[in-house]
């Protein structure tokens, strides 16, 4: 899994503006079509890349890096089961055969911080908006592949009074050296360590339309000297989170777009509060995101590269690093890029668990 099989798309001709496509879609029209309320015509912008054709918002098809090199289909073709207990969730998630596992209601893991091991070829999806894993972790071991985790709330493994959590490893989702994983439309809240840790040499990962809330160490990528990971991070809402939003270390490609970062937590903790960090030898591209009340919204090591374009910053301070050429995501896959001005309303409405996803 070390070779990225890129899909090269046609390049714009002379005199054209990159990524606009043929159709211009204003923020006003976009917001109206999504039922998000009014935005003034003064904030008009374009819906780039898609040529004005919006993708179905509740699609079951992975996009971004998780769509490449054979794609990510999860448990498609396997049996569909509905679980309401920890024992059944653990049994089906760890099974050798493919499963689509529907989580109905709240499952409170025992003992506190317990791992639910997820093997290859699985879809785990919350029913309606009520599917929850409480005080537990989804754990993907090395070699695991083709996994989808969607439409769940993963919460409350936080240990009261242990803000830094250095003596625990209670993540929301942890994966080590996996490939083809899609984490979509989940809500993470009050996790003692990382809410989402994409570790070691993990590849072909997409993280989309999630809510990351009320946490210290939010979303880490890396813990490896190898530069292999390819990851797409789009339409996520980071609210009341302190650091690692995300922190991306030694990623071959990290594509962040249409994310919303706001209201960072900083309860007297001397550790740096920050938004996106391109670390090690990471090549990072940030597009059309929205930062509000964020300290150090995006930064890069001198050994890393970071390209930022089209984002909106409100009341931000500290580092706003951008250097190097990084890469062009349009050389690798198609994607729907919304105007930055529409991101707060769009992400607030459509991130986290949604009834149409868990139908």
TrEMBL record:
Subcellular location: Secreted
Lyase in keyword set: yes
Any one GO molecular-function label of the UniProt entry: lyase activity
Keywords: Carbohydrate metabolism, Lyase, Polysaccharide degradation, Secreted
Comp. bias (Basic residues): 1-10
Domain Pectate lyase: 79-296
The keyword ATP-binding belongs to this UniProt entry's keyword annotation: no
Signal peptide (UniProt feature, chain positions): none
Residue ranges, annotated region (Disordered): 1-20
Family affiliation: Belongs to the polysaccharide lyase 1 family.
Protein name (Swiss-Prot/TrEMBL): Polysaccharide lyase family 1 protein
Species annotation: Streptomyces xiangluensis
């Amino acid at each position: 899994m070390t070779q990225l099989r890129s899909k090269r798309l046609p390049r714009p001709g002379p005199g054209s503006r990159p990524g606009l496509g043929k159709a211009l879609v204003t923020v006003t029209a976009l917001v109206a079509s999504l039922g998000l309320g009014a935005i003034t015509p003064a904030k008009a912008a374009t819906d780039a890349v898609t040529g004005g054709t919006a993708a179905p918002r509740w699609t079951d098809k992975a996009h971004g890096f998780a769509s490449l090199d054979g794609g990510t289909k999860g448990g498609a073709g396997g049996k569909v089961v509905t679980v309401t207990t920890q024992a059944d969730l653990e049994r089906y998630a760890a099974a050798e055969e493919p499963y689509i596992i529907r989580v109905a209601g709240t499952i409170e893991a025992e003992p506190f911080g317990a791992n639910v091991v997820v093997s290859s070829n699985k879809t785990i999806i919350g029913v309606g908006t009520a599917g929850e894993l409480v005080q537990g972790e989804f754990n993907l071991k090395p070699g695991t592949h083709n996994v989808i985790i969607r439409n769940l709330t993963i919460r409350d493994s936080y240990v009261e009074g242990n803000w830094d959590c250095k003596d625990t490893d209670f993540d929301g989702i942890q994966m080590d050296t996996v490939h083809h994983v899609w984490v979509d439309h989940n809500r993470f809240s009050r996790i003692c360590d990382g809410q989402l840790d994409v570790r070691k040499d993990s590849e072909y990962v997409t993280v989309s339309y999630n809510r990351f809330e009320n946490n210290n160490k939010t979303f880490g990528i890396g813990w490896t000297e190898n530069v292999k990971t390819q990851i797409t991070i789009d339409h996520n809402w980071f609210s009341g989170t302190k650091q690692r939003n995300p922190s991306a270390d030694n990623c071959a490609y990290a594509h962040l777009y249409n994310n919303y970062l706001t209201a960072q937590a900083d309860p007297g903790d001397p550790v740096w509060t920050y938004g996106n960090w391109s670390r090690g030898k990471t090549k990072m591209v940030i597009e059309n995101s929205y930062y509000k009340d964020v300290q150090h919204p995006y930064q890069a090591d001198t050994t890393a590269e970071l390209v930022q374009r089209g984002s909106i910053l409100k009341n931000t301070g500290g580092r706003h690093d951008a250097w190097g050429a990084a890469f062009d995501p349009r050389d690798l896959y198609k994607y729907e890029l919304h105007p930055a001005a529409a991101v707060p309303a769009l992400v607030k409405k459509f991130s986290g668990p949604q009834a149409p996803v868990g139908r």
